[in-house]
Design brief:
Elements (H helix, E strand, L loop, with lengths): L2 E4 L3 E5 L1 H20 L10 H18 L15 E9 L4 H10 L4 E5 L8 H9 L3 E4 L23 H17 L7 E2 L8 H9 L3 E2 L11 E3 L9 H11 L5 E5 L3 H21 L2 E2 L26
Parallel strand pairs: 3-4, 3-9, 3-10, 4-5, 6-7, 8-9
Antiparallel strand pairs: 1-2
Helix pairs in contact: 2-8, 3-8, 5-6, 7-8
Length: 303
Amino acid sequence: MSSHKVAGGGRAGFSPWAWLAFLAACGFVAAALTVSPPTGGTSAPAAVVVDQQASTDEVAAQSSGGAARPLANDCSGGTVHFTFDDGPNVHTPLLLDRLAALHLKATFFVMGERVAGREQIIRREVAEGHSVQNHSYRHFNLVTGTDLAGVGRTPWGASQIEFELIMDNRVITAAGAPTPTQYRPPYGSVNLEVDKIATKLGLRLIMPWSDHDDMLFDDSHDTEAGVTADVVARNVLEGLHPNSIITMHDGEQAATLHSTAALQPIVDAMNERHMCASTELPADSTGGVFSAPGRGGSSGHPE
C-alpha cells in the first residue's frame, strides 16, 4: 500500500483506496473463518448436525411426549420377541436408552465389521440383559457372495461362508458377549449348504422376513422408503400376536430412529393386551424356510 507524509511531519496515513482494499480483505478473512472451522476441529458438517438433531428430536417427540410408559402387566396375553439387525451403529445407544426406559429386552443380530470401535455397545447390550447374536461379519449374501451393491466375491463356497460366521462370532466374543448360538442370514438369503455350515458351528437359524411365515415373524418394514415411526408402529401392531418375532434394524440411520420412536405405542398396545417381551426365541424360528426341522427338506429361501 502507498502512503504519504502528512503536512507538518505527522504520521503516515492510508489513502482512501488503501483503506477500501484493507477493509475488503478483512471481510473476506472473516467470512472464510465463519464458513470453515479450523482444520483440527472435530465438529461434523452443519448439514449433518442439523439432520441428526432433527432425527433425535423426532424420536423424542414421537416416543411418548414425556416420561416413558414402560412395559408393566401380568403377561397373561403371551410373549413377543424384539429383534434388531445390522448394528451396532451411531444410533444404537439411543435405542438402548429407549429399551431400558420401556423395560424391554431384545435380540441384536450383529455385523462384525461394525463392532470395531463400538465394543462398549456390545458390552452394554449384554449388561442390560439383551441377547447378541450372529448376522455375519461383512453382511454378504451367504448363498451368492454378493453385497448390497451387487458386487460378487469369487471364489464363494463353504470356506467363505464359514469365515463370515466364525469371524462374526470371534468379534462378538472379543467384545465381551457370550458365543452366539443363533444366526440371521443377511437379506434373508439361506440354503441347505449355508444352514449345514451354521449348524456345525452351533448356530440356529432365525429368519427375518414375514413373507416366509406370517404367523411367526412380524416385519416392521422399517427400512422401506417413506416409512415413519407411526407406520412402523402400525405395521408391527397389525401382526402382533403371542410368540411373534418382531424384525427391526439398529444398523440403519433413519430406520433405527423410526423403530426407536415406534416402541412406545407398541408397548402401550402390549400393556393393553397383557403381552410381555423375551429374548428366548421359539425353538423353530426358521419361518418355514426349510420343510423339516432336521433341515432335510427343500429350501424356500429367496433367490
